[in-house]
Amino acid sequence: MHALSELPVGTAGVVDSLELPDAVQHHLMHMGFVPEARVVVVRRAPAGDPTVYSIDGFEIALRRETARSIVVRTTTEEI
Amino acid sequence: MSSCCGTETIDFTKEQARTAGKLQTVALIGPPNSGKSTLFNRLTGLRQKVANYPGVTVEQHTGRMKGIGRADLLLVDLPGIYSLDSYSEDARVTVDVLNGEMPGTPKPDAVLLVLDSLHLRRQLMLAAPVLALGLPTLVLLNMSDLMESRGGEVDTLALAQELGTPVAKISAAKGVGMDAIVQFLQRKSGEAEAQQLGAQTQPLELPVVGNARSYRQWATGISSRTRYKAPLSSDWTRRIDSVLLHRVWGPLGFLMVVFAVFQVVFTIGNPLSDGLGNVLYALGDFVGRFLGHGWLESFVIDGVWRGVASVLVFLPQILLLFLFIGILEDSGYLARAALIADRFMKTIGLNGKAFIPLLSAYACAIPAIMATRTIENKRDRFATILVAPFMTCSARLPIYLLIIAAFVPREPVLGGILGLQAVAMVGLYVLGFVAAVLTARLLKSSILKASSTPFILELPQYRMPTVRALTLRLYDRGKLFTKKTGTIILGATVVLWVLANLPFHAALGESVIGRLGHFIEPAIAPLGFNWKIGIGILSSIVAREVIVGTLGTLYGADPATQALHLQAALRHDLTLGGAMALLVFFAFAMQCTSTIAIVRRETNSWRWPALQFAYMSALAYFGALATNQLIMHFLR
């Protein structure tokens, strides 16, 4: 188990749980961050934060402070 | 989020019977980036009405469905949302409209649900709560041409069965599949008139309302049962991003965009504005000749025409800015710019989406404040609106140029690279920026603290902006600007003209406004201002550039032809401290009724513009006071 923010660019993980306030959690789930969804770390913004994640074919940028509260399992597969 | 994820059965035969009646209003709903606006434009033609929903800051677009020959039907475009049960203002408005509880908007008789077929699995999540409302619904799978050309598939018949409502593949951008909408609406009109009770009485399995996880499972289940195969994502968006979000090229490209915005506003917008101004003033003078030299001419030309013209001259700059913002937004670059700027904006307590509005505020705060609509978080949006007028807008330039030319010597500094006058100008720009940054920090750590929604930004695929969409946007914004602010300006100028001309035949110093100037003189004397400057400040509450004209009149000189005389008069009448204080005053003060009006409009309350005006005026007063006192102290 890792925080999503800890995954290096180019790796993938599977969402396990979200530990965020209800409203935010809800919003993120509707944007695709639901348990068992596969998320890929695409790239970091030039300043190192936020980070762009790919989930469900969408690219969504989150700040480190938000990604820290998303728990993921790492997958061994390479992308 | 730990509640059960099962489904509940909703039988909505009764619901449909209740809504039966003549088909009049159709609602258009869909998630962000589903191509909803494109479809709206296609269905309504270019004729649409933009207003705000009462009581909220959400924009309402309505139009007659002329694009498909159904001018009898009203199409209501609802805000792009991910779900009906999120806590956003957009979602609340959508629910109210769909339930017929929004004052001024009739309850929709039918719903067109637009989903992006490239990402159907996620987009289907919105279908559950929309279908649960029980309104006759047509599900439109948009961009289906793209989906199929990239190897995607979906069984629309199976999907229609699963959803218990008709489904059609369309391409809003190319106008494919519009006949399906026509047929659906015709059938619904017929059904409604025949009072037919919905044929599909079979109950529909819908997920538990308000549970994102159960929506998700429901949507995934339907996707697999309808054999949905997601298309391969086009990789050129990622390829472009690998340059535009590159560690080195990304920020460089970003700076070039920033530079281009400035360049457009100053090198193209300014001459256009000046040209328009000349035309408008010449037109006024021409008409004035037929009005004689009495009070009528003075009222119509000096009072009404010049006041309105002084605002209209900003139209070219505003349209150019919106063209720019439109291209950036429609192409998808705006989201990338927000991503790049976010790190810096975070340090001042705002988020990346505030960057472009603040940048446009260098031209004019009005389009900037209108552009804050891209910021979803209300507190961040209000903070951006409140600090935007600190950015050095073009209306400050006339007074800056006048005072600097009169009081700052033409001396080279930095070995002749820059002139002292240019340094003073840059200094004023920096001053406004610093005030904006500090105010943003102050606001975000006090009254607008604790944003509940963090920075979540969807990066859309790059798209080519269409001329059609850009034209519509410019038309919308231009109309809004001339109508809303024009009326306010008109009212204010009329009031000012009356104050300056009462009692009849009195010299300006003896008029109501002149006496007001004398009355406030003791309050502004410590700032180094005399009563004439006082009148200038009072009259420029309408618009900053008005002060130059007022001072011109007061010093008995025409500012356009005898600027030198005005400069000399000011040098004679003002101390260096007073002149510098005047610059600081204008850097901070909110001397612009149009901005006040637009803030009122965008925040939907008089509270925010009142607070903003009080804060900026106080800052201007004490800033000017400190400047004058410091200079007096050091020159003594």
Q: What labels describe this entry?
A:
heterodimer; A: 79 residues; alpha+beta; SH3 type barrels; six-stranded antiparallel β-sheet; 2 helices; 6 strands; 16% helix; 39% strand; B: 636 residues; alpha/beta; Rossmann fold; seven-stranded mixed β-sheet; 58% helix; 9% strand; elongated; disordered N terminus
The total strand number of chain A stands at 6
Give the termini separation of chain A.
19 Å
Instruction: Sketch the topology of chain A as an H/E string, one letter per element.
Output: EEHEEEHE
Overall pLDDT of chain A: 88
CATH topology of chain A: SH3 type barrels
- Strand proportion of chain A, as a percent range, falls in 35-45%
Looking across the biggest beta sheet of chain B, what order are the strands in?
3-4-5-2-6-7-8
Largest sheet of chain B: 7 strands, mixed
State the separation between the terminal residues of chain B, measured CA to CA. 71 Å
Structural class of chain B: alpha/beta
Explain how this protein is built.
The complex is a heterodimer of chains A (79) and B (636). Chain A has 79 residues and is of the alpha+beta class. In chain A, strands 1-6-2-3-4-5 form a six-stranded antiparallel sheet. Chain A has helices spanning 22-30, 64-67; strands at 2-3, 12-18, 38-44, 51-55, 58-62, 70-74. The radius of gyration of chain A is 11 Å and the shape is globular. Chain B has a domain at 7-233: P-loop containing nucleotide triphosphate hydrolases (Rossmann fold, 3-Layer(aba) Sandwich), CATH 3.40.50. Chain B is 58% helix and 9% strand. Chain B has helices spanning 13-19, 36-44, 89-98, 120-123, 127-132, 144-149, 156-163, 178-193, 212-225, 236-244, 249-289, 295-312, 315-331, 333-347, 355-360, 365-371, 378-387, 397-407, 420-444, 467-501, 512-524, 531-539, 546-554, 563-573, 576-588, 593-603, 607-635, and strands at residues 7-10, 25-29, 49-52, 59-65, 70-77, 110-116, 137-142, 167-169, 204-207, 412-413, 418-419, 456-459. In chain B, the strands form three sheets. A seven-stranded mixed sheet of chain B has the order 3-4-5-2-6-7-8. Chain B has a two-stranded antiparallel ribbon with strand order 1-9. In chain B, helix 18 (397-407) crosses helix 19. The chains are: A alpha+beta (79), B alpha/beta (636). The interface between A and B is large, with 34 and 43 residues.
